[in-house]
Amino acid sequence: MEKATKKNTQEKGGNATKSKAGVPEEARSLLLKFFTDEIKDIYWAEKHLTKALPKMKTAATSEELQLAFQTHLEQTGQHVQRLEKIFGLLDQKAQAKKCDAMEGLIKEGESIVDDTDEGTATRDVGLIFAAQKVEHYEIATYGGLSQLATTLGLDEIAGILGETLAEEKETDELLSEIAESNINYEAAEEEEKTK
Ligand SMILES: [Fe+2]
Ligand SMILES: [Fe+2]
User: Fold this and answer.
1) Does residue 24 surpass a pLDDT of 90?
2) Residue 70 is part of which domain span?
3) CB 3.0 to 4.6 Å from 53: which of 26, 73, 127, 151, for a disulfide?
């Protein structure tokens, strides 16, 4: 069955209709449309984060965590710019498409702030939880997009997406370190005090 399919493709002159990356043209254009839509989605998400991160920084108690949010806010600004560069390379104008997942993750972060007291390590624990969920969403998205760009033969774009992916991973690790080194212990003590 598989052999017959291959023969069929060859008879139709399959090679001539294949793109540089070896993906048939028709499939490539469908995949490219999907890829572009996902770029629009993460573009909305990153722009939304540039508004959410300053609020998370203000809500944080520990200076270390405030600094981590500040640093990542600056990186997130670069993530937005990189996506704009990608739109240019795709010959498209930058366009954001609402990302329901990111909107939900940010709302969850806001409810954590509402449910915890100002100036507590418990609130910081909650903020780290919320921020790491965001980073993991971004890691999944950029990991998938960079792989897809490679499949589509868009090597320069794959490289750009890879840079952002590395920064999301670093941020996730930094947040883990902050939680493990100090904040989780402080929050555990807080709970004992209130008992
Ligand atoms: Fe990002
Ligand atoms: Fe991020």
Assistant:
1) no
2) 21-194
3) 73
